[in-house]
Write the structure tokens for this entry.
Amino acid sequence: MTRAEHSVMLQSARSVHITSRETVARAAKTFAATTGPELRTATQMVLAQARRCMSSAAEAQKELTGFAKLSAKSAMYPTVTGVVVTLVRTAPCDIFSQLYIEQKKEIDWGRFAGFMIFGGLYVGVFQTFLYRYIINAANITAITGLTGKAPIVVINALIDTFIHAPFLYLPVFWLTMKAMASGDPVETWIPDTFTKWKAQCFDVSVASAVLWLPAQIVNFYFMPQHLIVPFINVVGAFWVVYLSLNEGKDLKKSEEEEKTA
């Protein structure tokens, strides 16, 4: 074997990404069996360096912070993470609103169940899918041709705030609450939800835009894909209290109208 061939083989050995100790051992045996002493010595040096790199990576893995480990796990299971974080966030927010802000003597468990179901299924599951496959940078680039991060983030935030929220999020939320908390016949759920949407959509959407437009710009710009929904849940603690108070106000108004009827 010529020195040129030796050089090529050494370069190839250096570029190989060694992924396991078994691979290292197999590579060492192969080189030892097929090459002369000079190349075997050089190969052993390369493989020793690979082993040191593997050891360094293992040590770095051990030293990962708790947040980094949690982030890595959430990246592996984004939907599960979204559901768990949403439920953990939603439950105390609605209970706090009912007991400490509205001063209710008893918890409205139907309303609580509505918030939990909507939070788990819509926010945890559907919104994870929404931001992964629909409201994302790739689709904006494909439609508009834009490639700059800042304009894409702003467009995504505008779509989320002024299309997704008023025309999908709020109707589904109010329909869920109607189904879980009202006790009304099934045939009234959709008509009553539509009536409520027409009456309240504008005011609630304005409140939503004040909070969510800047929050989503920050979210889409800085957060990796798997942390978008968890970030929404952190900011959304305030939003859940607002929605809870709004639902409580509507329920109280309905009860007063029934008494005077």
